[in-house]
Amino acid sequence: MMRRNRLALASAIAVVLAFAPHFACAGAQCPGYVPLAQPMPQRSAHDRTAIGLEYVFIDQHDSVPVHAAALAEMGLTAVKHYPEHVMWGEMQSGPKDAIDFRRLDDYVREYQRAGFGDLVICLRANAKWAARSPGLVKWDDTNPKPEHYDAYEKWIQSVVERYDGDGSGDLPGLRWPVRYLEIGSEFSSYEPGPVAHYLETLKHAYAAAHRASASVLVAHAAFMPTTAFKTRPAASVEAYRAAFQKIEVDPTHGLDDIWAILDQPALFDVANFHALADPAEVEDTVRWLEFEMGRRGYRKPIMISDTFATPFIAWGPATSCDGPRDKLGKMIPPAVESDRCRLAQFFSKLVADDDKTLRWTRGFVAEDAVQRAIVSAEQGVRMVNLAYTTDLPFLTSRLLRAGAGLTAWAGFVELKGKCVDKRNPVFYATKQMMGHLRDYQGVQRISYPDPQVRAYQIRTPGAPRWVAWLDPGRVVLPGDEVPRRSITLPVGASHVTVEPVVNAMGQTAPERTGVPAPGGRVEVTLTPRPVFVVAGS
Q1: Cβ pair 42, 175 in contact under 8 A
Q2: Could you tell me which residues are beta bridge partners of residue 495?
C-alpha cells in the first residue's frame, strides 16, 4: 500500500509536469509573474535553521526563473528541487556519455538569482543501464552494479565540483557554493535493495563528494519514521525497537537497516529524516536521532529534507471507512481510528471541491506550516523543507480518493506553465512568519503547566516577539468547536501588537491589533491558529 501510494504521488507529479507546457501563458498575463531585473541579495540561515520549500520543478527551462522569482517573495532561505528531474539516468545515458547539467544549472542559477542561499541537491542513483536490478515495472534495487561505481563517483564528483564555488569548473555565474547534498531521496521504497548495497553507494558518493569539496554536507537518504512515535516511547533501545515494529507504512527498511546507516557516521555529515505526520512528530524524531547518535558516541546536525502538511489519513483511500483496514488509508497522528468515518466524510467533500471544506483546508495548511517551521527551529534542526510547491492534482481527485490525505492540498502556489497564482494563504502565512524570523538568533519554548499550550520566544536583534498556539492533540474539523485557552504572556513592555497567522483565502497581509500590556504582561487567547506577539509596536 505504501509503495503504491508513494509511486502514485510521484506519477501524479510527473503527469502534471508532462502537461505543463500545454497550459503555458505569456508572462504579462500570469498572476504573480514578477521578473527579476536584478539578482536578489542572498538569504541564508547560516548557523540557524534554514526554512525552505519542496519540490520546485526544474524540467521546463523557461518556467524556472518565473517560479523562482515568485517563490522568493516569501523570504525563505532554502529550497529543494523535484529529485526525479536529475536522477543519474536522466543526466547521463551511459558510463562514457556526457553529463547533462542543464536542469541543475537552471535550478542553481535561477534560485540563487532569486536570493535562496541554502540550496539542496538530491541525487538518486536510478539509471536503467547501471542499476543492480532495474526491474520491468518497478525498481528492485536502484544501487549501481559494482562495475559502474567508478562512473557513479565521476557523476557525483562532477555535480559537486560544478556548484562548490572553488573557482575550478564552476557553473558560470555561480553566486555562492551549494553545500547540501542528499544521496537518495528517502530510505523507503524509493531506495529498494539491501541496506548493504545502499551503504556501498553512500560510501562511494561520500568519497566522491568530498574529493570535490571539503565543505559539502552529505546527507544519507532520509529516514521515514512516521507512526513510530504515536505513543511517544521512552528513549531506550527496547522501547524504540518496539515502536518501530508497529510502523504501519512502508516496510522496505526497518530499524535494523536504519541502525546500519547510523553505525557508519563516517559516511554522512548530516542525519536526515522526513516529517510526514503532525508537527509534534519533529520533536519525537529529533529526540530519537539524538539518542541513537549519543549511544554511538557522535553528534551530527539534523535536517528534515521533506515534510507533509498533517495528512490525517494517507497511504491509501481516505474517502471511505468501510472494508478491511488494510485496504484503507493509514491513520496519521493526531488522527486515530475512531476519527476514520468522520474524516471519510470530510475527504469526500474535499475531493468534491466543496468550497467551505476547501477554504478550511487551505487555512489549516497555512497554520500547520508555521507550526512545523517553528517547532523545527526550536529543535535546532539545520534545515526543514515545507511541502509542497503546488498541489498534487491527481491525488486531489475523486479517482484516487484522497490517497495522500490532506497534504495533497498543501500547495504554496498554483502553477500552469509560466503562470504562478499566489492565492493560497500558506504563501502569505509563510511570508509573514519569515518576516518575524528575519535575522533571528534563536527560538525557545516557554514552559506552561498545560502541555497543549505552545508558546515560543523568538530572539531577534529588534523588538522582542513571540508566537503561540494551542495544540489539542486531536483532529479538529470544520464544524467542530474550536478549542481555546487563555494564557498570560510576560512581554516586558506596556504595549504589544497581536498578529494572527494569515489563514484565509484572499488574505494577503496579516491583521494587526494593538493591545495594552499592563505590568509588562498580556493575556492572549490561543486556538490552533498561531498568533505572533510583538512588543512595543
Answers
A1: yes
A2: 516
CA atoms within 13 A on the CB side of 249: 29
Residues 229-271 have pLDDT tens digits of 998 999 999 999 999 999 988 989 999 999 999 999 999 999 9
Are the C-beta atoms of residues 189 and 250 closer than 8 Å to each other?
A: yes
2-310+358-394+407-438 shares its CATH topology with 445-535 = no
- Superfamily (CATH) of domain 445-535: Golgi alpha-mannosidase II (2.60.40.1180)
Q: Are 477 and 342 in contact (CB under 8 A)?
A: yes
Domain ranges in the chain? Answer: 2-310+358-394+407-438, 445-535
Q: How far apart are CA 16 and CA 19, in angstroms?
A: 5
Are the beta carbons of 318 and 407 closer than 8 angstroms? Answer: no
Return the residue matching grid coordinates 563528494. Answer: 209
Superfamily of domain 2-310+358-394+407-438: Glycosidases (3.20.20.80)
Measured CA to CA, the distance from residue 318 to residue 405 in angstroms comes to 6
Roughly what angle, to the nearest 10 degrees, separates helices 280-295 and 255-262? Answer: 60
At 33, the pLDDT band (50, 70, 90 cuts) reads low
What is the H or E stretch that residue 81 is in?
strand 78-81
Tell me if 470 sits within 8 A of 448, measured CB to CB.
Answer: no
Q: Name the residue among 461, 537, 443, 528 with its Cα closest to residue 494.
A: 537
- Structure confidence by residue, pLDDT tens digits, 115-167: 999 999 999 999 999 999 987 778 899 999 999 999 999 999 999 999 999 99
